[in-house]
């Protein structure tokens, strides 16, 4: 699931680059743009997880777990790795 990789990268960039730029360097634009991109990718990830859950006939619990993993900075990477294997 390529979107897991993209969403995970955007989350890490938001947390490790954009947020420090905003709060330590006074550059709020970093969060505005990276945050918007991450928000879009987050929504696409949730929709993709829901669609994949339907297609692969996952249980509701498994679908919810995959969606919830997007809340952790490393979660989408773990989901992607698990789906690849």
Please explain how this structure is put together:
This protein has 4 helices and no strands. The chain has 85 residues and is mainly α. It has helices spanning 2-25, 28-55, 60-68, 75-84. It is elongated. It is 84% helix and 0% strand. It has one domain. Helix 1 runs antiparallel to helix 2 (28-55), helix 1 (2-25) packs antiparallel against helix 4 and helix 2 runs antiparallel to helix 3 (60-68).
Which key terms come to mind for this protein?
single chain; 85 residues; mainly alpha
Topology at a glance:
Layout: H1 2-25, H2 28-55, H3 60-68, H4 75-84
Helix pairs in contact: 1-2, 1-4, 2-3
Please summarize what this structure is.
This protein has 85 residues and is an all-alpha fold. Helix content is 84%, strand content 0%. The mean pLDDT is 95.
The protein's oligomeric status is single chain
Strand content is: under 5%
Rg value: 14 Å
User: Can you write the helix and strand succession as a string?
Assistant: HHHH
Integer tally of domains: 1
Approximately how much helix is present in the residues? over 70%
Determine the N-to-C terminus distance: 12 Å
What's the β-strand tally?
0
The assigned structural class equals: mainly alpha
Mean pLDDT: 95
